[in-house]
Amino acid sequence: MSLLLRLINPVVVSPTIAAIGLSFFSYGFTQVGNCLEIGVLQILLVIIFSLYLRKIRIFGHRIFLIYAVPLGLGITWAVAFLLTQSGVYSYKGCDINIPASNTLSAYCRKHLSRMKYCRVDSSHALKSSPWFRFPYPLQWGTPVFNWKMALAMCAVSIITSVDSVGSYHASSLLVASRPPTPGVLSRGIGIEGFSSILAGIWGTGVGSTTLTENVHTIAVTKMGSRRAVELGAVILILLSFIGKVGGFVASIPGVMVAALLCFMWAMLAALGLSNLRYSETGSSRNNIIVGLSLFFSLSVPAYFQQYGLTPNANSSVPSYFQPYIVASHGPFHTGYSGVNYVMNTLLSFNMVIAFLIAVILDNTVPGSRQERGVYVWSEAEAARREPAVLRDYELPFKVGKIFRWVKWVGL
């Protein structure tokens, strides 16, 4: 990753991260609308806790600010549970387990959406999940490799690494440490890749990357200890053996998840744009680059996803799956199906468009270092002479001594 650092700066990172958050705009409130009283309550509670009650201290801690999301989720889930148990979402003669296509009663079809999205027991996940379960490698069978999908995801992985670059730099400032060296940054990206390999072996369905919202968490909690992260990781690993924990999470109504993600994705977009504070935010050059990147990151993928389709043809497919089905009808029609698949898929990703436009314009349009806000990284030789920097960035338990022959493991 250190080879690409000269091309990446706040003007590139900012719209790329923001585009990730904005790309889900068509999913958020459209799902909340399936059960407005539950979804809107979730959104309002999180907003009230994180904004209006953020300065209230309990036992010296800003409880409402730190725990705005879990508090809002817990209260809303409790309300939905009480409404479900009291029969508010039970309709005489209607069964949620009967598919809509087999429902003959117009009365049941009318209330099917509320039964599906408002009830907390519609998934039956909590009852059907075992108390204890041991997840093991290749538990879902041998992984299937598809080179066309692999190429698309390699490009996406590079762009999520750009997100990590901004997060690493911001985190170092929040914990009052020197910025990491290019070697440390490459090591972090390498660990993300290694973790994604483990995720694939265990069949989790998602890769691993730096979550930008956690930078905000550090700022709010003032907690930047690696020991706290290690302890949290151990707790999460132990919880993965308790099936009822996963069943409880799966029992949360989808409308509550959508409402929660409305807040999280909005935060992601805002935190992405906050990277501009490292550059000249009043520069017309930067404003034009960021504006073009954000606008086309929404407009170009929409063109690719709707190309050659009749209106509402993809309305039943969630927005986050759209890039993967556009390969069959996108505007790229060459004689090579693999090229068509890769190009149609990549150009349907909002963050890919934002990154390409930002990185090309920022590195071709003239601008001073101060105007562009180039990230400052510590020099490896200078870092080795400072015990504080070594303590912050060395691998725990002296593991780094074993891997000194690997260039990106050290400073």
UniProtKB/TrEMBL annotation:
Transmembrane segments: 7-25, 31-52, 64-83, 144-162, 231-250, 256-276, 288-304, 341-361
Compartment(s) of residence: Membrane
Regions annotated as coiled coil: none
Keywords: Membrane, Transmembrane, Transmembrane helix
Molecular function as annotated in GO: transmembrane transporter activity
A Pfam family hit: Xan_ur_permease
One GO cellular component term: membrane
Bilayer topology annotation: Multi-pass membrane protein
Annotated InterPro entries: NCS2
Superkingdom classification of source: Eukaryota
PANTHER family found in the cross-reference section: XANTHINE-URACIL / VITAMIN C PERMEASE FAMILY MEMBER
Family: Belongs to the nucleobase:cation symporter-2 (NCS2) (TC 2.A.40) family.
Listed name of the protein: Nucleobase-ascorbate transporter 12
